[in-house]
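in:
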C-alpha cells in the first residue's frame, strides 16, 4: 500500500464530514472515489496532502501513512506536498508563460540551472502529453490555451516536482468529451509511474480507468473494492442503488 488511512474522522467545526475512514491505496494503480455530492470525497482527497490544514475549524483524528510514514507526525508538510501533487477540477494555470508554469515548482525547490529547468519542462510536458501542442509557444501565456490544454499543463506542472502520488479532484468535469478522453488516456499512462487517486462524478469514467473504487455516502466509505467487482457485484445495497442510478 502506498497510502493507508487509519480510523480517520474529520470535523468542520461541529460537522462530522468523514466517519471512521479506513482505506489502503495501492501503489501505481488508479483509485477512484465516487458518491453523491457532499459525501466527503474531496475532503478525504485533500487530507492526503494536508490541504485541509488551511481550513479554519477543521479537526482531524486518526492517521494517514505515506509509505509507512505518518503524514501528520513524521513528515514536513512541504516535503509531503512535493511527494503528493494535486490537480483540481478547474484548470488553474498561473498567469505566466507555459514554461514558467512548469518551472515554478522546481524553481521553488531551488533549481536555478537553465539547462536543468529546460530538461524538466520538456520532460514534464511530454509526460503530460502536451509537448507537441506547446513546444513552439513556451514563452506564451498559459491563459491562451484551451481548457483541455490548460488541464494537461496543470498535470505537467504537478509532475515537474517529481511527485509519487497524484491527487485529481474531478479533473475532467470542466472539459469537453475529447479533452476528457485525453486526460483519461493520460491517467492510464501515468499510473505506470505514479499512484493516482481521482474523485469523479462520472461512474463510466471510474469504470473505464480505475483499478479500485471507493463508494462514499454521508461521510462514510460504504464499499471499497476492485472496480469491476464493485460495479458488477456490489456487496452493499446502497452501492447498488447508487450505481444503478436510483439516487445521487
Ligand atoms: N471548508 C469547509 N467548511 C465547512 N464545511 C465544509 C468545508 N468543505 C466541505 N465541507 C462540507 O463537508 C461535506 C463534504 O464535502 P466534500 O467537498 O468533501 O464533498 P464531495 O463528496 O467532494 O462533494 P462534491 O462531489 O460536491 O465535490 C459537505 O457537506 C460540505 O458542505
Amino acid at each position: 500500500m502506498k497510502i493507508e488511512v487509519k480510523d480517520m474522522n474529520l470535523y468542520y467545526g461541529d460537522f462530522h464530514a468523514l466517519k471512521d475512514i479506513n482505506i489502503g491505496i495501492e501503489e501505481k494503480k488508479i483509485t477512484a472515489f465516487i458518491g453523491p455530492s457532499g459525501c466527503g470525497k474531496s475532503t478525504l482527497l485533500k487530507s492526503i496532502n494536508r490541504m485541509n490544514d488551511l481550513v479554519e475549524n477543521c479537526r482531524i483524528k486518526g492517521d494517514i501513512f505515506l509509505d509507512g510514514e505518518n503524514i501528520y507526525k513524521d513528515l514536513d508538510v512541504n516535503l509531503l506536498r512535493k511527494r503528493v501533487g494535486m490537480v483540481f477540477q478547474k484548470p488553474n494555470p498561473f498567469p505566466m508563460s507555459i514554461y514558467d508554469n512548469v518551472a515554478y515548482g522546481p524553481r521553488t525547490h531551488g533549481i536555478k540551472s537553465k539547462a536543468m529547468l529546460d530538461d524538466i519542462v520538456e520532460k514534464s510536458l511530454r509526460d503530460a502529453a502536451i509537448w507537441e501542442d506547446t513546444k513552439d509557444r513556451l514563452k506564451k501565456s498559459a491563459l491562451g490555451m484551451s481548457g483541455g490544454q490548460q488541464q494537461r499543463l496543470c498535470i505537467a506542472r504537478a509532475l515537474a516536482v517529481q511527485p509519487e502520488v497524484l491527487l485529481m479532484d474531478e479533473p475532467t468535469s470542466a472539459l469537453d468529451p475529447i479533452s476528457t478522453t485525453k486526460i483519461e488516456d493520460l491517467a492510464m499512462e501515468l499510473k505506470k509511474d505514479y499512484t493516482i487517486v481521482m474523485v469523479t462524478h462520472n461512474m463510466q469514467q471510474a469504470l473505464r480507468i480505475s483499478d479500485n473504487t471507493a463508494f462514499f455516502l454521508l461521510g462514510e466509505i460504504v464499499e471499497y473494492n476492485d472496480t469491476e467487482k464493485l460495479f458488477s457485484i456490489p456487496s452493499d445495497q446502497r452501492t447498488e442503488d447508487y450505481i444503478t442510478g436510483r439516487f445521487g
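note: The domain at 3-243 is CATH 3.40.50.300 (Rossmann fold).
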